[in-house]
Design a protein that fits this description.
globular, about 200 residues, 2 domains, six-stranded mixed sheet, Purple Acid Phosphatase, chain A, domain 2, three-stranded antiparallel sheet, single chain, about 20% strand, about 30% helix, alpha+beta, 9 strands
Length: about 200
């Protein structure tokens, strides 16, 4: 939400799936819960345009999303489990390792930076694997996993990125999917959104 040219279709698809979701800074921005001056100029323009496309039903749905959610033994949060309303980025090894005390579940899934990666903390210490493609959840260890971004990857891989959590196997797998980037870029340009938002899709950054 907030960068692409199909916000209504995205919201309606989420509602249809009746799945579990958390709010991010863009959901807060388009529903007037976050001052748009917080965003850079490109994101500001996109948030204003996105808000203009939504009707009251869409806004009600987005405004009702929680900042954090518990699903099985995982905490879901867009930014950081520590003060999620501050929208801190978890990017480096130190960023993730210092917030394990902010959640009580065994796992925590985040986004926000648009770059997949995994932090782990266990009996022998802590670790960080940027760009993790598969994470096996070992007994007695805790994990924070950034699941990447479907809509705007930023790790130089332009394919859509998402993760599948297999509860039975105790494993999370990151998947990459090619899509029609040119068509998505053209939609962004035709909508009058900043060219930068379309161009960055091509480079995955």
């Amino acid at each position: 939400m907030g960068y692409g040219a199909d916000p209504v279709a995205c919201v309606e698809r989420l509602v249809e799936r009746d799945a579990r979701f958390v709010a991010g800074n863009h959901e807060y921005g388009v529903t007037d819960r976050l001052d748009l001056r917080w965003f850079n100029p490109y994101a500001q323009a996109a948030a204003l345009w996105t808000a203009s496309q939504l009707d009251d039903e869409h806004r009600t749905f987005l405004a009702g999303l929680p900042l954090a959610l518990q699903v099985a033994d995982a905490t879901l949060v867009h930014a950081s489990p520590k003060n999620p309303e501050k929208w801190d980025y978890l990017v480096t090894g130190a960023d993730g390792l210092k917030v394990f005390d902010a959640f009580s579940s065994r796992l925590c899934f985040v986004g926000h930076s648009h770059c997949p990666g995994a932090w782990s903390l266990g009996p022998s210490g802590g670790g960080f694997e940027p760009g993790a493609e598969e994470v096996w959840f070992l007994p007695e260890w805790r994990y924070i996993v950034n699941v990447g971004s479907v809509g705007q990857p930023r790790d130089q891989d332009p394919r859509a990125c998402y993760a599948v959590w297999d509860l039975d196997a105790g494993r999370l797998t990151v998947h990459r999917v090619a899509y029609d980037i040119s068509a998505a870029r053209e939609k962004i340009l035709r909508a009058g959104l900043p060219r930068f938002l379309g161009d960055r899709l091509v480079h995955g950054r």
